[in-house]
């Protein structure tokens, strides 16, 4: 028996009394699912937040919200909300100042540093949570107000591998090139490294039908909440050794090709590169793959045959291959996504209605954030900054000479590593990112930030990164501003203002216009999101991510539209472009219209096991927290539910260490050491430890993670490194070398 | 430019060339490959899959590196080496000068000295002694062998596989899968005796019988019986005659060392090389793969050859810019020199036979007091698992019919991850216990169990909510937000509400379900079905408790 998602809406509507007619229709501030919400300013209704939150019917969330969404309004009234600019004094104290004083100070310093060391001495770090308007304006501000090449953003830690692979093979990077609701009709969904049940819980409703048909295949070293969805005959859970997802994919390809299950007609008509894919996968017969990835050969065969039976070419209802950060945050992340796409192509999925490949975007505007020019190598419209036509087009929209645009800058990890080094940036502006917590090898990041002459952070709460800043500028958050976000399915949705921000708080659009004026920059610097969007639309025209047929007004009158949505010419009886829910129906946006399969092979983790670090460490999220936790750790319900990180340890490992559930353990890697309570659970492999990443300081797992990066995407290898674990007891005399067999701990319910 | 000649274009030779070109960022090497086979390199390991009918031959072709610095001479035999002039002379008379020479000539099927196996043995003058095998007798070493065996199965009624090592077992299972009656003849007292001890071998014998494969273990062959130039059967030590029209020789391999021997290089079983894969007699000559004999011994497994290939490529590319840089690529004290660990895993690819071994295993192993051996013997279901532990590490394992346990043991062994305090836990799946003790009714679900994951609502919270007056799922949703995420827990919440509401007429309109209401005191087996919550760990099927 599967859940009854349609009726859930009914239950919800009954539960909440229906969406309030006076409320403001907007979307949740957190992940890329962007659940529809209705916000009703009503101080009497919901305690001290001043805003009541309700779920709102929308295809992706069907009216549902998770715990984060329901409690999202609490951040609006966070007790430590930033409401005035703060400047660090010579004594190291942060003191409140007026906006003019703060902006003058920043502008003077930026000018000085630029004059002394050139424009690239100022760097910018953006975020995947910024609205499209802000992401666009930030890229423009960096390129023409600051003139620096050095801009990148935290999406480098998020979507860059999936983006690189999709662009290479499919010619375009739209996370899901189909509506999320399409999943319901499929016979199989292969989820690689994605824990949807915790990271975007309402999306699980779309898997109900495929589970009912036994077709959910989850690849994850942990038996995550999502992997559990495949239990009891609802699908398969493949539990590979960390860092070997690519091997699983190579074996699946091998089985499809050797057992004659590939869609050869489709491959012939719509792809290139089959021969090399065939040869590469000849190296990965299931029994060899089993030895590397730990997934039994028979299970690999079952999975491949299940996917093949679901594929349209073999009479199935359809199949989807989806990737998440678990496989992408690896030094072979791009290769792994390439292999996932190749697998989808071998099955003949992309471009067929009811089938496809997609990357499950993580951050709220992780999709839009990577389209409008925040990336070091991109201009708006998903144009490449080294493309002369793209430069000419964007420069014309911005009203500056093409030659004045900088070239490609450094990707995030390199950029952060170069801060404050000789020849590296001396100033950094941070927007929508708590990089001290979210970047790998956190202690080194802290050192680099400390080496800067000037760190300016725009935020709405005093995040860990903000607290290191020389200047903190308080900015608006989600319910206080207008704008657009582009959800995981490439759908442009409206974020709407429900309440006024606290006095003293400003929009980043205003901050940039003020700084641009103080820096004597050319160009126009609108502060109205709707006007910035119109400019973004023009700048995107003709690009891969074409928004030129969209406007706030159009999005307000029609249901949210999927890009590309090019302008069709004003008036004149030409119907506006309807948007593009599904891509690749007829061809791929490559030079020859074919998908170009890229042959890849397994290399393995950069920091692999060794005698003094004999276990794997993997990282991820918990349901109650989002990203660096700067928001969710300030929500009492969420902070109480999950107050801090734990290290998930298998009972056998715990027994070997002699630790009990809740006892503190010390994790040590080549980069650092943290002590956290152990959480003993069967859901993890005995050779692996899991730790979530939402916390800072001494409990930050990113003190442990490696900053090795993918050579193509620059993505750090967050998801696997070698670790040692010891009990964190005060110095005991000596650890026994041969502890007595201990009882095996039992799992505590979640 | 350094001239590098590789002799052999098989699985290891072609892989080495790819590794080398990948490691040679500076572009210092000019590479020539001499391969005897006319075809592109292919995956020899999968030949038994071809015999089993699972693979098409075209699925075997391996990647071939492309580079302007690479010349591949296919279908070219290396005739001899002139080490003085540093030249490889080919059968066609070509002379290839080298600065470095890598031998990757592989090995050949061993043909045992049995009368009747070779066409020349017929004594009817029908063929010169050119090594040609009697009609119906085949090795299984090359793509041609596989092709011929597959063709032979079309007419063959009865097949004998001589030798029950890995290849023999795979070939026997593959032939049986094609519907040929198969008998395995193995002179040693245990099947796969290099990998299996007597007890494990016995379990495998039972499994083979289950597959309909006949076997003669501990019995050798004395003669191949030939009539009219065709194989008719095999005579065994004990006088038995096993009729057969197809004989597959799986009696081991012989390293192909003729070039090295005639060139005066040290050859034992294989071409002798040191830890750097270099011949002690000539610093310009290296050997890898089946033809080589490194200090730790050759395993005959491709994993070892590939590991050597990667290592030699790194060594050659690191050493070119100066002797000092040779050191970092060498094994350090922390990781002892290339031991066999990781590359001596044997995994049978055979339909219906699940055998995996690694490290310390087999009937010829030597007892070591530092080792602790644990065994799970379960022959009645074809299961036998043995692990050998030493110094907190898994140093060997034998798995027959062990399923997922084998895969776990391989990763524990190859990655040297810590073994449990009590190694007995290695003998069973460690990842998740079976679904033994799931709650069977709502009252058996622990109070702190999460019912609604999306909103973190426990059973206790729902119970409290109902006690406070909630009578329906919408009531519970309004009070606790349970069911308002993905909706997957709706059935579970409904069941809880009904269980808690003795008045049977709970409204279920919102969910459209028609489950009967019941009270805990009124549970009868088979009735009062509480829908199973698939997303929960609990099995909430109602039953009498």
UniProtKB/TrEMBL annotation, chain A:
Keywords: 4Fe-4S, Iron, Iron-sulfur, Metal-binding
Coiled-coil segments: none
Biological-process GO terms, alphabetical: respiratory electron transport chain
Native source species: Pedococcus bigeumensis
UniProt GO cellular component terms: membrane
GO MF entry, a single one: 4 iron, 4 sulfur cluster binding
Chain intervals for the UniProt region annotation (Disordered): 1-20
Annotated Pfam families: Molybdop_Fe4S4, Molybdopterin, Molydop_binding
Protein name, as recorded: Nitrite reductase
Comp. bias (Low complexity): 10-20
Sequence ranges assigned to domain 4Fe-4S Mo/W bis-MGD-type in this UniProt record: 21-80
InterPro entries given in the database record: Asp_de-COase-like_dom_sf (IPR009010), MoPterin_dinucl-bd_dom (IPR006657), Mopterin_OxRdtase (IPR006656), Mopterin_OxRdtase_4Fe-4S_dom (IPR006963), Prok_molybdopt-oxidoreductase (IPR050123)
From TrEMBL, chain B:
Cofactor(s) recorded in Swiss-Prot or TrEMBL: siroheme; [4Fe-4S] cluster
Pathway listed: Nitrogen metabolism; nitrate reduction (assimilation)
Source organism, top-level taxon: Bacteria
UniProt domain FAD/NAD(P)-binding: residue ranges: 3-296
Annotated keywords: Heme, Iron, Iron-sulfur, Metal-binding, Oxidoreductase
InterPro entries membership: BFD-like_2Fe2S-bd_dom, BFD-like_2Fe2S-bd_dom_sf, FAD/NAD-bd_sf, FAD/NAD-binding_dom, NasD-like
Region (Disordered): 521-545
Domain BFD-like [2Fe-2S]-binding span(s) in chain numbering: 451-497
GO molecular function annotation: iron-sulfur cluster binding; metal ion binding; oxidoreductase activity
Coiled-coil boundaries: none
Name of a matching Pfam family: Pyr_redox_2
Record-stated family: Belongs to the nitrite and sulfite reductase 4Fe-4S domain family.
Name of the molecule in the record: NAD(P)/FAD-dependent oxidoreductase
The organism of origin for this protein: Pedococcus bigeumensis
